[in-house]
Amino acid sequence: MDFRGQRILCLGDVMLDRFQYGRIDRISPEAPVPVVRVVDSRAMLGGAGNVARNIVSLGGEAVLVGLVGEDGAGREVASLIAASPGLVDANVRSAARPTIAKTRIIAGHQHVVRLDEEVTEGVSAAEGAAARARVSEMLPGCRALVISDYAKGLLSAEVVGHAIAEARRLGLPVLVDPKRDDFAFYRGATVLTPNLRELRAAARRIGVPVETDEEVAEAARALMLEAEAGAILVTRSEKGMLLVEAGSGAQAVPAHAREVFDVSGAGDTVIAVVALAVAAGQALPRAMRIANAAAGVVVGKLGTATLDIAELAAAVEADAGEDAEVAGKVVASAGQALSVVEGWRRRGLEVGFTNGCFDILHRGHVTMLQAARAKCDRLVVALNTDESVARLKGPGRPVNALEDRQAVIAALQSVDLVLSFAEDTPLDLITRLGPDVLFKGADYTEDQVVGGEVVRARGGRVALIDLVPGRSTTSIIARSRAMAG
Fold it and tell me: Are 460 and 438 in contact (CB under 8 A)?
């Protein structure tokens, strides 16, 4: 999955997504409403902008064509684009129309309220003409066209028809995330990617039932014919995805999210990944599977999230394995681990860390890891590489190779993430990941725990876990040798 050099034009409603994170400690004395004490604020591109963000985060290039106002939010959108390598600002500026902005207030893990600033009436004739001209100018050199419709006024019949015709003339695939219940509005698209609610609305318009899985597939076929589209890919939340292509049967994949936290922006991720995969030469069934793996990652993150190519590769590999849950816990690098840890931290989860050789898993290991996991929300376990174990324990160790040790530790319910380190101590890894809690066996004192000062300096803590007496890998090996001798 190398998406480098895949240039995608994203046409649609561009928004500014603002997030105010805080916590609720009391009810207002002025009215029976919660008081949210804001502790963090973030802003990111939303709508068609989030599709573009997903494309560049996966190594592709995106040209963003939307409409923004000549206002503070519009300048913020421009700054966000300028700070995103691989993202080209081709937005039309309007002196008469404000930038669409959505502000979400989030306390703990819950959305409290959303504030929308927008005008949804159709754009002026001059603004529509400017958008069509921008598409004609920027589409050559791209590998696909994505139309992201949020029904905010930019995507008139003239703009959509012109964009699809230009893409067809250049031989480019057209992928549409529809908002209207008349899919014929996007006539000539290569792929439509409605969610189940949007498909049901469109099916009701033509009098087609959508209750069973078979009816969903039949409705997709009917709507595909009406829109003269090549395929319809339906996203169905916990049921996964369903693909119906012209001239072939329906194909489905189940959802693979380990934990659903926030579904906002998941549709943007799906269409971005499908566009990149198709542009890179993947068949639609394969593109669907890749996008399904990507969706399983982003719904576990807070806000209009993206993922990087390492996260996607890990998710695809995990889905392809016989045991996706276990394989998905093992990451190959500190960078991949940091991405996961940062996602947990954004959600307010407390991250714990412990390390060891874990050569022959025994009751002492399992008890210690269970006790550690009970004291945090997520537990990261770092294993010494084989070379590191040999330096620490001597020749003949480890008994089990790193790959086997990782698989066994990842299979434990108490463990959420597994990685390795080649150094004699995990100090560099602890410094980079910055866990909230550092766990070690009670045979150590707090001042002896490597990385303890680093964790305490950033407000974390060190926790010592009682060990099960008489259980150790060394003693197991010694008993085995004695019995064999």
Answer: yes
Residue 328 banded pLDDT, cuts 50, 70, 90: low
Q: What are phi and psi of 238, to 5 degrees?
A: -70, -15
> What are the helix and strand counts (H, E) for the chain?
17, 20
Say which residues have a Cβ less than 8 Å from residue 169's Cβ, sequence separation at least 6.
none
Mean pLDDT of the chain: 88
Q: Distance between CA atoms of 86 and 402, rounded to whole angstroms?
A: 37
Give the CA radius of gyration of the chain.
Answer: 26
Answer for the pair 468, 462: CB distance below 8 angstroms, yes or no. no
Residue type present at position 126: A
Report the alpha-carbon distance of residue 81 to residue 53 in Å, rounded: 9
Buried b (16+ CB within 10 A) or exposed e, 333-372: ebebbbbbbebbbbbebbbbbbbbbbbbbeebbebbbeeb
What is the distance between the alpha carbons of residues 37 and 471, in angstroms, rounded to a whole number? 48
In 3D space, the residue among 306, 325, 305 whose CA is nearest the CA of residue 315 turns out to be: 325
Instruction: Note the pLDDT of residue 338.
Output: 86
Q: Which residue has 């500014």 as its token pair?
A: 16
Of the listed 17, 177, 268, 319, which one is catalytic? Answer: 268
In angstroms, how far is CA 341 from the centroid of its own chain?
13
Residues 6+ apart with CB under 8 A from 14: 45, 46, 47, 48, 49, 64, 66, 67, 68, 77, 91, 99, 100
What is the per-residue pLDDT across 52-94, written as a single tens digit (0 to 9) for each? 999 999 999 999 999 999 999 999 999 999 999 999 999 999 9
Q: Would you say 196 and 241 are in contact if contact means Cβ atoms under 8 Å apart?
A: no
pLDDT-based confidence at residue 262 (cuts at 50, 70, 90): very low
Name residue 244's beta-bridge partners: 232, 250
Q: Model pTM greater than 0.70? A: no
Query: What span, in angstroms and rounded, lies between the C-alpha atoms of 136 and 163?
Result: 8
268 is catalytic: yes
How far is 20 from 232, CA to CA, in rounded Å?
Answer: 36
Residue 364: partners with Cβ closer than 8 Å, 6 or more residues away: 467, 468, 471, 472
Alpha carbon 233 to its chain's center: 19
Residue 265: its pLDDT value, please?
64
- Length of the chain equals 485
